[in-house]
Amino acid sequence: MHSHSFALAKNKVQRLLFLPGSVWNGWGGRSQSQRRGIRSCRSPLYAFTTHIQDRMAKRIQARRLEGVDENIWVEFVSLAAQYKTVNLGQGFPDFPPPRYVREAFSKAITGEQTLLNQYTRAFGHPPLVKALAQFFGPLFGKELDPLSNVMVSVGAYGALFCSFQALVDEGDEVIIIEPFFDSYEPMTLMAGGRCVFVSLRPTSAGDGKPPSSGDWRLDPAELEAKINKNTKMLVLNTPNNPLGKVFTKEELEEIANICIKYDLICISDEVYEWLVYDGNQHVRIASLPGMWDRTITIGSAGKTFSATGWKVGWAFGPDSLLKHLRTVHQNSIYHCATAAQEAVAQGFLKELERQGKPDCYFLQLRDELQKKRDRLYHCLTEVGMTPLISQGSYFMIADVSRFKSQVPPPTDPNIPYDNYFTKWMMKHKQLAAIPVSAFYSAPHKKQFENYIRFCFVKEDATLKAAEKILQKWSSESPGPQD
Ligand code: IK2
């Protein structure tokens, strides 16, 4: 083509497609092989295609998805696998669920009751909602109606999603206590709401005691100051992921009084309810006076029975709130796998018989995990990582400052240091963890960027492999005190 007509044609296409000049840059200056290399990411054709794809994606994507496209689990689960790490990252056990629930699952699929392979009731398989009502009623100090006070969904994720979709409207404000399980923020945004964050802040442990997640506290005055006429809901997570903080009854009473005073709905995510250590008590905020009618309590069979892949979760609450969750659920998820629900129902019936006895799975798991927590705590302390004693959950956070000198400085100042450090550790030390900044809102991500989160719901062999990596690394790292 003549160079003048090429320039005109190029100009026309560029204007028609709103292409920036940079897409064409270098067209004239590149070698023939570069021009032909349509796969090269520097080729103008690649840039052209990418630009068109970006434009299309922007036009197609619903506005409520803006800013929620990145996800820590998608990114870090993939990196943990890519670098073949010893995985103390995502929170799942690497040991099997108890035998009797696994057997119940396979019997549900292969047994005589072939209908267990088919659809069941939309809001929860009848034997499961019945077992949940029977098991949890006394814990809430209430008789629960299995049909109207319990809803089963696809994991706690499904129950949370239905809660936000059902109860948050355009312009509503949702108070989130941070650090927080990351999904609360995108779920609020996807429902059209606005997130308002209130931070747990470390206070001094006192008496020379080692720092604990219990030292992180909420200032009720700060919480109250964030409430206005648009505030509709407060999200609580106890035991908290990632800190492992277990809110005390007194702390929950302060939060409950504020919810009642300002007529707020409370979403209480209690998926780690059985994993509470050192004699601490898990208190259900819905069981406090005046709270049942305004609280949705979320639970997870994944965490309760060490079967995170089964994706069975639930919501408890008054019919006045749950009926709206059911509307979302029936029009989106409908129900989760019948056989998994049947197995979880069998699990709760068994645990009902064992409640309070030494063979109760929940007590056994708790005691087992307390030992694992202590083991990880000692290892992290020994190598100089300054962990925070976790009062509950599967997780422990630790300050990694001592190891900074062993890691080349980051080149991008915008990425929180813990994110950079954790990726470097996965790639170069084959040890996976999760950066604590993932549990903070954007303006606060850099506040605790020397902390990373380790998961200890792992076989002893996995913990031992992690210890070996850390001990070797530590012996190579002259800390500031050395
Ligand atoms: N709520 C909390 C507080 C959770 O931690 C989870 C599971 N998160 O695990 C990933 C991690 O932090 O490493 C959920 C809800 C979701 O639970 P489910 O698996 O039942 O959907």
Automatic annotation (TrEMBL):
Catalysis performed (reactions): an S-substituted L-cysteine + H2O = a thiol + pyruvate + NH4(+); L-kynurenine + 2-oxoglutarate = kynurenate + L-glutamate + H2O
Pfam families found in the cross-reference section: Aminotran_1_2
InterPro entries linked to this entry: Aminotransferase_I/II_large (IPR004839), Kynurenine-oxoglutarate_AT (IPR051326), PyrdxlP-dep_Trfase (IPR015424), PyrdxlP-dep_Trfase_major (IPR015421), PyrdxlP-dep_Trfase_small (IPR015422)
Membrane-traversing stretches: none
Domain Aminotransferase class I/classII large: from-to ranges: 85-469
Pathway given in the UniProt record: Amino-acid degradation; L-kynurenine degradation; kynurenate from L-kynurenine: step 1/2
Family to which this protein belongs: Belongs to the class-I pyridoxal-phosphate-dependent aminotransferase family.
Protein name per Swiss-Prot or TrEMBL: Aminotransferase class I/classII large domain-containing protein
Gene source species: Engystomops pustulosus
Lineage, uppermost ranks: Eukaryota, Metazoa, Chordata, Craniata, Vertebrata
